[in-house]
Design brief:
By secondary structure, the protein is α/β, with parallel strands linked by helices. Helices cover about 35% and strands about 15% of the residues. The protein binds NADP nicotinamide-adenine-dinucleotide phosphate.
Length: about 325
């Protein structure tokens, strides 16, 4: 992929005051501080998307103090293309900032055909990380996650593969994603026995999906592991964008999307009620939804997606008002029931 535009000429130089406004939170009991808001590249960074826009969003993120970028082998579409685009942009804009960045990849979902391109075998995970490093042009990732539990592969094999990635210097830390509390506990025990730094669990968490409150956050606390909350805006539903209908260029209206118009229509009354509260708090709904997650001490970072730099700028302003009154929290619970 070529970057062929005016910004090709203008070399990127990061905003000197990028660390002045962002909050950094410790991930569990580790040495790692993560920005309160991180950027995920699941959507908007594939070959189907504009590379120029992807570059603007990444530059904007880093200028806002967002040091953590989250990828996975199969982000795109097509699979692998978000990592390849990231690699193209990284080479031009971010190589000199490598030590200021915390970059993640994962494997665990469908990636390539045949028996070795899915789930949690050692064969799959090791090969996948090698491919990801090549696509991104990196020597190592800062964290590598097993993307989802595998009901058939022994956990010792999967965790053993993660531990070996660290030993080989291809990952600095490891994490898991979408594991239930009991599976998380078992993974933590195995990783501890292997002396491997398990610092993050990546879990879906938003006002519309509160499963982590039923045990996972406590389990993570017990094991000194941080939580990074993905899809905090419920893929865009927890913003004001759908209040007057489904915009043409929204995720709910796109192919290759897990969000559809029925889900949006089913939640819209709750969204409107939440939006009224956000306006009273002099915040956008997206900002209130992010602040609501950050009230959980175990959450080290809220992992947002963005289809434009302006969305990211708006979302980071969530940090201007993170406090809630008891009455506000009670009202939110009532709306969500
Ligand atoms: N571990 C896992 O299994 C897993 C699964 C899913 C995601 N993730 C990670 O989590 C990241 C975030 O997930 P997500 O993209 O679903 O997060 P999200 O923050 O809930 O949704 C992001 C989308 O919401 C819309 N949006 C964001 N800010 C907005 C604003 N201020 N106003 C209006 N609309 C706004 C945009 O969609 P439009 O296109 O409509 O503008 C944007 O692409 C992913 O990139 C990935 O890194 C991990």
């Amino acid at each position: 992929m070529q970057i062929n535009d005016k910004s090709e000429i203008k070399e990127y130089s990061a905003f000197p005051e990028r660390y002045h406004k962002m909050d950094y939170k410790r991930s569990g009991k580790s040495g790692i501080l993560l920005p309160a808001i991180s950027l995920g590249l699941w959507h908007n960074f594939g070959f189907v998307d504009s590379l120029q826009n992807a570059r603007e969003v990444l530059r904007c993120a880093f200028d806002l103090g967002i040091t953590h970028f989250d990828l996975a082998n199969n982000y795109g579409p097509p699979y692998g293309s978000a990592e390849e685009n990231f690699g193209t942009i990284f080479k031009k804009d971010f190589k000199k900032y490598r030590d200021e960045l915390f970059i993640a990849s994962k494997a665990g979902y469908d990636m390539w055909p045949g028996p070795y391109g899915n789930f949690g075998s050692r064969k799959y995970l090791i090969a996948s990380l090698d491919q990801s490093l090549k696509r991104m042009g990196l020597d190592y990732v800062d964290i590598f996650y097993h993307h989802r539990p595998d009901p058939e592969t022994p956990l010792e094999e999967t965790m053993g593969a993660l531990a070996d990635m660290v030993r080989q210097g291809k990952a600095l830390y490891v994490g898991i994603s979408n594991y239930q509390p009991k599976e998380t506990q078992e993974a933590a025990k195995i990783l501890k026995s292997l002396n491997t730094s398990f610092i993050l669990h990546q879990a879906r968490y938003s006002m519309f999906d509160r499963w982590v409150e039923d045990g996972l956050l406590n389990t993570l606390h017990e094991h000194g592991v941080g939580c990074i909350a993905f899809s905090p805006l419920a893929q865009g539903m927890l913003t004001d964008k759908y209040i007057h209908g489904i915009p043409e260029n929204s995720r709910a209206n796109k192919a290759f999307s897990y969000l559809n118009t029925d889900t949006v229509n089913d939640t819209i009354e709750k969204v409107k009620a939440l939006n009224t509260l956000a306006i009273k708090r002099e915040q956008k709904l997206s900002q209130m939804a992010i602040a609501w997650i950050l009230r959980q001490p175990q959450v080290a970072s809220v992992l947002v997606g963005a289809s434009s730099a302006n969305q990211l700028k708006e979302n980071v302003k969530a940090l201007d008002n993170l406090s809630f009154t008891v009455e506000e929290l009670t009202l939110i619970d009532k709306i969500l029931k």
